[in-house]
């Protein structure tokens, strides 16, 4: 019986964090938690209530006051995990370009980060989780036993996201996707509260030229080392 650990996978947008985190969780029998989905759900709430827009403005005071009324959790279904916002399945809607354009300014609001961090720490109380995001290894679980920080070139990432959206019939132009990734990366890296950065003890993974199989094998190797 291996000891249960916390696995933190952070990095830039569309590097494949959720793809690798989900796969690894399945392989080792851990729970997968998509922290980005939680910020996306808050952004959707803010958009619907006129507290944020796609131009990047956020009514911080109103959003902060509304936080106690925003319940976010995950429901496990036969076709995977679904993100729930106040009991409503918003899994598809939170992946839209509209939400992508509003999410980073919303996620920069300190009270939003504190609320999500608390929730994420509760979800990881018993360990045995793989969580992906931007600040999991630095702020949410600074003591995580396994940390990976994922990067790839902006063009590679935009191509991956563009293909993904196209496969789901959610149209967006390549240039629009690339511009959005750059914009979010910039906001995520420069915000005051838990900015996107590599934890000193995180394994740096540039997967620009890596296949999914190579990536999975590498992660399993690191996992086996950390749980030995
Ligand atoms: O999948 P993608 O890279 O497009 O983004 P995501 O993981 O769904 O996260 C969406 C946004 O939420 C990011 O651009 C960040 O602004 C924010 N986020 C965050 O601030 N902290 C996290 N731990 C996860 C996401
Ligand atoms: O979660 P994050 O935004 O970092 O990325 P994702 O939603 O997992 O999307 C990454 C996309 O790139 C997926 O369609 C993967 O199949 C693809 N991909 C990858 O994840 N890793 C590679 N080494 C190559 C491609």
Automatic annotation (TrEMBL):
Keyword Cytoplasm carried by entry: yes
CDD domains listed in its UniProt record: CMPK
Listed Pfam families: Cytidylate_kin
EC numbers on record: 2.7.4.25
Chain sites annotated for binding ATP: 11-19
Top-level EC class as recorded in UniProt: transferase
Cytidylate kinase domain: residues covered: 7-214
GO biological process terms, semicolon-separated: nucleobase-containing small molecule interconversion; pyrimidine nucleotide metabolic process
UniProt protein name: Cytidylate kinase
Organism superkingdom: Bacteria
This protein's record includes keyword Electron transport: no
Family designation: Belongs to the cytidylate kinase family. Type 1 subfamily.
Primary localization class, coarse: cytoplasm
Keywords attached to this entry: ATP-binding, Cytoplasm, Kinase, Nucleotide-binding, Transferase
SUPFAM superfamilies, A to Z: P-loop containing nucleoside triphosphate hydrolases
Molecular-function annotations in GO: ATP binding; CMP kinase activity; dCMP kinase activity
HAMAP family for this protein: Cytidyl_kinase_type1
């Amino acid at each position: 019986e291996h000891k249960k650990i916390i696995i933190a996978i952070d990095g830039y947008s569309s590097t494949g964090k959720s793809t690798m985190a989900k796969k690894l969780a399945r392989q080792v029998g851990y729970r997968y938690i998509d922290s980005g989905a939680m910020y996306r759900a808050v952004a959707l709430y803010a958009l619907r209530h006129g507290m944020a827009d796609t131009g990047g403005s956020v009514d911080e005071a109103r959003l902060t006051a509304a936080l106690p009324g925003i319940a976010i959790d995950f429901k496990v279904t036969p076709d995977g995990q679904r993100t729930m916002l106040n009991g409503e399945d918003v899994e598809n809607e939170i992946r839209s370009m509209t939400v992508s354009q509003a999410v980073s300014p919303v996620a920069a609001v300190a009270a939003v980060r504190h609320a999500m961090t608390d929730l994420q720490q509760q979800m990881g109380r018993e360990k045995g989780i793989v969580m992906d995001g931007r600040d999991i290894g630095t702020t949410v679980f600074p003591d995580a036993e396994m940390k990976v920080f994922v990067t790839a070139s902006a063009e590679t990432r935009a191509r991956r996201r563009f293909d993904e959206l196209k496969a789901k019939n959610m149209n967006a132009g390549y240039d629009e996707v690339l511009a959005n990734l750059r914009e979010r990366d910039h906001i995520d890296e420069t915000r005051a509260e838990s900015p996107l950065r590599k934890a000193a003890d995180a394994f740096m993974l540039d997967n620009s030229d890596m296949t999914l199989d190579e990536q999975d094998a590498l992660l399993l190797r690191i996992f086996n080392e950390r749980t030995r």
